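Work Package 4 report. The design task specified in the project plan requires that, given a folded chain encoded as C-alpha cells, an amino acid be chosen for each position. We show below one input record used in the internal validation round.
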C-alpha cells in the first residue's frame, strides 16, 4: 500500500512539473531597474551599494544569497548567484533553473549531480528552492541510497510538501539515490532582480557606503558602462548627520535610520536620476 502511495506521489510530482512547463518563455528587453524599492527599510554593509540604477537589455531573475540548508542530517551549501527566470505562467508564477552547484558539507560525502529550481508566485516574498535531483556519494565514491528520511529513521513513510498551493512528495525517488525536497527562502535570501546581458550598452549608477566618523557619513558615487568603471564619473561624498537624517545626490533621497562602521540601515525616498 505504501509503495502505491509512493508511486501516486511521484505521479503527482510529474503532473505538477509538467503543468509548470506550460508557461510563457521570458524574453529579454530594454529595462531600467532601480534598487532597493522605495519605502522599504533595508541595510548594507561597508563597501556595498545602498542605491543602484541600471539600464540595459536583460530579463527578470532571482538574486540568491549564499545558502546553507539541511535535509535528513546532511548539510548542503549553494553559493549565491543571479538566476535568470526562464518561465512565467499567466497566473504570475516564476521559475528559474540551476544545475550542479549544490555541495555537501558533511565529511566524507560529496554530490555527484544536482538539479534545482527557484519558484515564486505573484504575491510571494522570497521564493522556494525545489530540489528535483540530488545524488550523494560516500567516501568510497558509491551512491548513497534512500538518504532522505523523516528524521526518525523510517524512510518508507510518505512525506509531503506544498509548493504554490499544490502538494508533492518529498523523499528518495523510487527508493533510489535521487532526492526530492524543498526549502523555503526568505525575501533577504531570494529577491526578484533583473539579470542584464553582458553584451550591449548596460549603464549602471550606484551609491556605495564607506562608513562613519563621528556624525559624518562617507559615500562614493560611481558610474559603469558595461563592466568597466568610468573614473571621470565618480565622486566622493560626505554628509553631516547632525544637520539632517536625510541625504541626497542627483535626485536621490535616502533617510538614514542607523549608521555605523559595519552597516547602514536606511529607507529610499526617491531614486537617483538617470543620465
Amino acid at each position: 500500500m505504501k509503495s502505491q502511495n509512493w508511486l501516486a506521489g511521484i505521479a503527482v510530482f510529474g503532473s505538477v512539473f509538467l503543468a509548470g512547463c506550460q508557461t510563457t518563455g521570458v524574453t529579454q528587453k530594454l529595462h531600467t531597474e532601480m534598487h532597493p524599492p522605495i519605502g522599504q527599510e533595508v541595510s548594507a554593509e561597508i563597501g556595498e551599494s545602498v542605491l543602484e540604477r541600471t539600464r540595459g537589455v536583460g530579463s527578470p531573475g532571482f538574486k540568491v544569497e549564499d545558502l546553507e540548508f539541511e535535509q535528513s542530517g546532511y548539510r548542503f551549501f549553494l553559493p549565491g548567484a543571479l538566476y535568470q527566470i526562464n518561465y512565467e505562467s499567466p497566473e504570475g508564477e516564476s521559475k528559474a533553473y540551476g544545475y550542479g552547484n549544490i555541495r555537501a558539507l558533511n565529511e566524507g560525502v560529496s554530490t555527484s549531480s544536482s538539479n534545482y529550481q527557484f519558484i515564486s508566485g505573484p504575491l510571494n516574498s522570497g521564493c522556494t528552492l525545489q530540489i528535483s535531483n540530488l545524488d550523494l556519494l560516500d567516501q568510497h565514491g558509491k551512491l548513497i541510497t534512500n538518504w532522505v528520511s523523516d528524521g526518525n529513521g523510517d524512510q518508507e513513510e510518505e512525506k509531503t510538501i506544498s509548493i504554490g498551493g499544490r502538494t508533492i512528495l518529498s523523499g528518495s525517488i523510487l527508493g533510489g539515490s535521487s532526492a526530492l525536497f524543498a526549502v523555503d527562502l526568505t525575501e533577504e535570501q531570494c529577491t526578484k532582480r533583473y539579470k542584464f546581458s553582458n553584451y550591449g550598452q548596460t549603464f549602471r549608477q550606484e551609491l556605495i557606503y564607506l562608513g562613519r566618523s563621528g556624525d559624518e557619513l562617507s559615500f562614493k558615487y560611481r558610474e559603469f558602462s558595461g563592466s568597466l568603471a568610468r573614473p571621470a564619473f565618480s565622486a566622493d561624498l560626505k554628509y553631516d548627520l547632525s544637520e539632517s537624517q536625510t541625504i541626497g545626490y542627483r535626485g536621490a533621497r535616502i533617510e538614514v535610520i542607523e549608521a555605523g562602521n559595519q552597516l547602514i540601515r536606511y529607507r529610499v525616498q526617491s531614486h537617483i536620476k538617470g543620465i
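The first strand starts at residue 24 and ends at 25. Validation will be extended to a larger panel in the next phase.
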